[in-house]
Design brief:
The complex is a heterodimer of chains A (287) and B (349).
Chain A (H helix, E strand, L loop, with lengths): L1 H30 L6 H19 L3 H23 L9 H22 L10 H4 L1 E4 L2 E4 H23 L1 H11 L1 H6 L4 H26 L7 H15 L4 H21 L4 H15 L11
Antiparallel strand pairs in A: 1-2
Helix pairs in contact in A: 1-6, 1-9, 1-10, 1-11, 2-3, 2-4, 2-9, 2-10, 3-9, 6-7, 6-9, 7-9, 10-11, 10-12, 11-12
Chain B lengths: L2 E4 L3 H19 L6 H26 L8 H16 L5 H23 L4 H19 L11 E2 L2 H5 L4 H8 L3 H29 L1 H11 L1 H6 L4 H27 L1 E2 L1 H4 L2 H15 L5 H16 L5 H17 L3 H10 L9 E4 H5 L1
Antiparallel strand pairs in B: 1-4, 2-3
Helix pairs in contact in B: 2-8, 2-11, 2-13, 2-14, 3-4, 3-5, 3-11, 4-5, 4-11, 7-8, 8-9, 8-11, 13-14, 13-15, 13-16, 14-16
The chains are: A mainly alpha (287), B mainly alpha (349).
Amino acid sequence: MIWVDTIAQGILLGGLYALFAAGLSLVFGIMRLVNLAHGDLIVMGAYLILVLVTFLGLPPFLAVLIAMPIMFALGWSLQKFILNRTLGNDVLPPLLVTFGLSIILQNVLLESFSADSQRLPTDVLTTASIDVGPISLGVMPLLAFASAIFVIVGLNQLFYKTSLGRAFRATSDDPVTASLMGIKPANIFATATGIAMIVVIIASLYLGLRSNFDPNIGPARLIYAFEAVIIGGLGSLWGTLLGGVIIGVAQTVGAAINPEWQILTGHLAFLSVLLFRPRGLFPRAND
Amino acid sequence: MSYKVQTSTRTSKIAAIFGAFFLIFLIFLPIFAGRSMIQDLFTILTMLVLAQFWNLLAGYGGLVSIGQQAFVGIGAYTLFAVVILGGVDPVPAIFFAGIGALIIAIPTAFLAFRLNGAYFAIGTWVIADVVRLLVAQWKSLGGGTGTSLPREATKDIWMVNSIEVLLDVKSSAARDILAYWLALILAVTTVGGIYWLLRTRRGLALAAVRDNFEAAKSVGVDVMRMKWTVFLVSAFGTGVTGGLIYMQKARISPDAAFNVTDWTAYVIFIVVIGGIGTIEGPIIGVLIFYALQSMLADFGSWYLMTLGVMAIVIMLLAPRGLWGLLSERTGLQIFPVQRRLVSLKSLKR
């Protein structure tokens, strides 16, 4: 019975990883840009929520609503003024600029908040758990998983049901032709990164509520997100959720065998998918 | 009229003569330089070697790796394993460090080459993390907390006694001098070797792959083979450097030996600031890295931030780095690889 519990916890952890990955997947899908600072942006978001909670005395779920427009503006300007300049045929500039950004963010957070680990305040609701048959599931992990599904449904609706989504898809397919139709790729990209930052702040909320965080944990979050995206197959958001679940289950099962193996078994799950299904489980037709 | 193909320029000849004199100066430096200067130069030389190999990968091979710490770490751990468990002298063990890195590089390349561009970068990072986690399970080398080289092994390293007698220094200083000389040999071999490689047919193929992947393929360059060669050569060199660095430190832990900031982030910044895709770039970059380190030593993380900001600004405004800026303005080349046709008549005249 302990295994059923372990796997259930792993699936819920996968929801958190899918949240980490959704923003990465969105940005890559539209402009083929891999943001190496993605993990650090998630950590920065957690500090932003922490600041709002501490100084305005808000509960975290309200603070995240205030943080959303801030993050959107940040993502929009980041893309518009810095990252757009790196896009092109050469893979080097976007990688090196976002890697530099990652190192800068880590050190800015370190200078501002010290290396001490922090946590968002939890209340009765968020620490409660529900008994489902023989196992008991935490309300917080359940909320994180539900949010992941909500975010993925929302992004899919945005992509396929709105004119903005149409512009996203058009720009992704062919920016030159899209711009002939009156779309400004630079602004579309900026908006996409802004939306990705809204997903990031949702991920930050659950990161901060679920566990401790400190300025140095960003790169590991980037790696989990990346693994989820690759396992699922590039460009498929539901695939990303499944990828997150696979990493989550592998990690909790590994940790149940030996606590030192938690991260390792997650990586090994990723490497075996890479070995046997290099294009992921649900690859997009072209790419 | 007859022609010949020539790569050297007048500047490069003058630079070679100055370089030779400077090298002789560096060889004899331990006679009069203090220990801290020798240690600083050791750091500069080893970072230069790491930077040259990363530049070979990213600047010429188009393989942006964020996983070079895997090879530094495994090289260092191989050295410790061979010395502690095998009883080998640390100096020849440095060679095994390279072999250890090479062995890890083969499955790494096999997996990572399935990913392209940015995904290759993160893929190498994941694999480096796997190697770190596996090494941390290696209990006979201290597991997660690490271990030190035993005193018996460090006491009578090859040559150290002769250096002690010859230069009249303590054994700890003699070890640093030995490490410095080895680093000097490594740096000269690396720069010389890469320069030689770039001037051969293979180097030409490499430059073709860098400049235009499809065009290179269409004229018959075996792109996959080039990638494998560059990746394995870099892994070997990086492993040797890792072994040497940790022979000098004599103390190792998985978190330090597989540190992404120390062995990859700094290296990337050095290459980008100096000028990616040139041999001169990493040399300039490492000097700036060292100057900044001395200036900002007391400010901790501000130092890394400054390097990060510099790297971003340079990537956006002058993607070919400081050396690229300089050589564009002046046409200066210390390690020219461009082939020029020179009329033999004009040479005779």
